[in-house]
């Protein structure tokens, strides 16, 4: 490849990181909002500029070359530094007109944000949030890598480099089919779980591990062969009599308006809770604003959802 005196652009580094993330040009192009031929052309130009191949094409997909693996972290750091530069400029202007990238778990975002975002927009008229869903561990990594600016994640954190503000505590509700022997009881003693077939989500979700701990403690049978891919799938499996399940309080509040198919109850003297926080990189220039956002979200939760979840003081 011929070497040139041109330097790589920020956009080209963004394209490089996206293709590396997906190991697929088509999916990377979809995420970037551009055509696949245009993306391929930009990567070819970048490789020409660097005088090295970044990817290897094979039947297994688009794989990083040895040079690509060595350069990927450096590219991410350049993009992160550029984002922090932009954030610092926005913080100095005190206008907060930047679009912030917010990551949320799929078990929280669709059931929390519709109640929160309208009021948040009223408080910060110039605020724009680009929302993406991912599992909790991926969210924390994406914040550290600069893919997200902030994220709502379950506690505890696994990445000590992140700063956080607690947001709310959410109960998990126990749901059974209406024809189940435990239906009709508002509160159950935890010992009633012994031998019950408990359904849950896939292991990548934080929610899975919490339900697994409950099963191990009270002798319930976690159905590993029938894990749901979403909360809606999990609910439908309970309706079909495949087992019983714990569902987040926000989901029950938002989606379960028909009590005919399922019965919702709680464990007596053993509330099952999960805690969520807003997190960001500890050295983020806008960290003061992020704390302000967290306080505003807690206030909105207290005003609109206090009978469903509890804002953390």
UniProtKB/TrEMBL annotation:
PROSITE patterns: HTH_LYSR. CDD domains: PBP2_OxyR. Residues 8-65 form the HTH lysR-type domain. It comes from the Bacteria. GO terms for molecular function: DNA binding; DNA-binding transcription factor activity. It holds the Pfam family HTH_1. Gene3D superfamilies: Periplasmic binding protein-like II (3.40.190.10), Winged helix-like DNA-binding domain superfamily/Winged helix DNA-binding domain (1.10.10.10). Keywords: Activator, DNA-binding, Transcription, Transcription regulation. One of its GO terms (cellular component) is protein-DNA complex. InterPro entries: LysR_HTH_N, LysR_subst-bd, WH-like_DNA-bd_sf, WH_DNA-bd_sf. Belongs to the LysR transcriptional regulatory family. This is Hydrogen peroxide-inducible genes activator. It comes from Zhongshania aliphaticivorans. The lineage of its organism: Bacteria, Pseudomonadati, Pseudomonadota, Gammaproteobacteria, Cellvibrionales.
